[in-house]
Amino acid sequence: MKSIAISGSPRENVGKRDAKELRYNGQVPAVLYGGATQTHFYVSAADLRAVVYTPVVHFIDLEIAGVKSQAIIQDIQFHPLTEKITHVDFLLLDEKKPIAIEIPVKLTGTSPGVKVGGKLVQKLRKLRIKALPKDHLDAIEVSIESLEVGKSVKVSDIKLDNLTITNAKEDTIVSVTTSRALRQAEQEAAQGKK
């Protein structure tokens, strides 16, 4: 999985006034959980853009006052009006503990059902997976090569080594439905035979 390096600075004061001043100066208050103690720090809002405003999931190589650690974003809070990032929670990664995160679904191939006029409907754009940090993927590839009209790929159809998908097994990821044009063509063909 891809990593992005972000450096932070420890917060000397933890409070509303300090947090407001940080945000005014283009910084975002943050907390690193998962270690022996919580670490309160701040990062540049500009550094977070590459991690937050993308469908790709990243591990983050955090450096706070010379101490390096690997983490993921656990939670983000946004301002209700401006939608600027107001706070970020990071979770420290442990190579021996599995973590659960959402991974994007990437469709591969061409569906024969779409070629004959069917409509491709992707119901799940991300899947929740649980695995050790070293086993996580950038995306889960789902082949649509065998999808005819009326067929679908469900969560239970996806088999991955060292990963557990936590979505419901009966959830549909992608399907090919009958389009209006295909339905009309079938009706015209049926009327022509009479």
Strand content: 35-45%
Terminal-residue CA separation: 59 Å
Unreliable residue runs = none
Classify the helix fraction into a percent range: 10-25%
What is the structural class? alpha+beta
Radius of gyration: 23 Å
Topology-level CATH name of the largest domain: Ribosomal Protein L25, Chain P
Number of helices: 4
Major sheet description: 6 strands, mixed, barrel
Quaternary assembly: single chain
Domain count: the total is: 2
Pfam family, one: Ribosomal_TL5_C
Domain Large ribosomal subunit protein bL25 L25: 7-90
Function: This is one of the proteins that binds to the 5S RNA in the ribosome where it forms part of the central protuberance.
Keywords: Ribonucleoprotein, Ribosomal protein, RNA-binding, rRNA-binding
Structural commentary:
With 194 residues, the protein is an alpha+beta fold. It folds into 2 domains: 3-93, Beta Barrel (Ribosomal Protein L25, Chain P), CATH 2.40.240.10; 100-188, RNA Polymerase Alpha Subunit, Chain A, domain 2, CATH 2.170.120. 18% of the residues lie in helices and 42% in strands. The chain has a 6-stranded mixed barrel with strand order 1-3-2-6-5-4. Strands 10-7-9-12 form a 4-stranded mixed β-sheet, with no helix packed on it. The longest helix has 14 residues, at 180-193. The termini are far apart. The model has no long low-confidence stretch (mean pLDDT 89).
Task: Write a brief caption for the model.
The chain has helices spanning 16-24, 45-52, 112-115, 180-193, and strands at 3-10, 27-33, 39-44, 59-64, 67-78, 85-92, 99-108, 119-122, 126-131, 140-143, 152-154, 164-165, 172-177.
